[in-house]
Design goal:
Aspartate Aminotransferase, domain 2, Aspartate Aminotransferase, domain 1, 2 domains, 7-stranded mixed sheet, globular
Amino acid sequence: MKFNTKTIHGGQHPDKAYGAVMPPIYQTSTYAQSTPGGHKGYEYSRSHNPTRSALENALASIENGVYGLAFGSGLAAIDAVLKLLKPGDQVISTADLYGGTYRLFTKIFEGFGIKFCFVPMDNMDAIENYINDRTKLLWVETPTNPMMNIIDIKGVASIATKHNLLLAVDNTFATPYLQRPLDLGAQIVMHSVTKYIGGHSDLVMGALIVKDKQLADQLYFIQNASGAICGPQDSFLALRGIKTLHVRMQRHCENGKKVAHFLKSHPKVDDVYWPGFVDHPNHLIAKNQMDDYGGMISFSTKEDSLEGAIKVVEKFKIFTLAESLGGVESLAGHPASMTHASIPKKEREKIGVKDSLIRLSVGIEDIEDLLEDLQQALA
């Protein structure tokens, strides 16, 4: 089954009760049993819910996985992965990553004795230099948030295999429409479903997808024991979002390309970060492991100041100044004061997140309107 067909039919079947094409919203906490332990596969909705199960099957299908798990948020999904570890274990992570992930790593799990090393993973040697007998997990974002760096998933997977490490990839920016990390050697794929998979800025959710049953069983146990699940209403909305993922991503990519080239040629714009440029570091890796380059772009103006960035984002009329990304509407963000504010300024600037940086999530509006909005905001 091809990807565009999978988004609509993958892992899905008409409802057994009445043949409903869309899985019903099973708004229930518990299920009748004929005898203690005698039930129809569902006993309590923290453990399982038919609407959530339908979503998890769809997520597994589009990522070419076998097992899907849906959580109350992307951070809840990451939290479950880290609960596979124990005090003294080490995680080697992408240096440039989402601020909420950095906060969870450093402010929560470091306190439980887990060590984190933040490494520029575009350099394979740098990863090898940090591996020791306590290393258990490699955590990758690609493209990275917000610098749009590209990491060679297959290359990192070879290192993980060599040292018997888990490799988890945050695939939020790319989505399985553009890249499928499990096919490239990762064991775990993570999504903030809130973003492109949901696609309509109307839910908060996270997901994990794996192929290995033993790993899936461990994560299912953690999910059930910790309880960070999503509800049936949000599961239904995410399922609806998946059914249009392919057509939305196609337009995100088309508009993103035009916005990136517009910004690069604009006299008031300094640096533009988008992996589709041939001079982008690791562009060839992006070309090989991605099917297109997505709708996420970061840039800075030649004014190169906090005041200059704020002036631009406050003038947008169609791009909405807001947290998050991946919705049908175009959004603009200021990472230093919004998504990455939890990272100390010194650490932010090491990875290029300057006060002048602006991040765009290019939506699916008419491209002429988006370019006009950029033009007037930069004027």
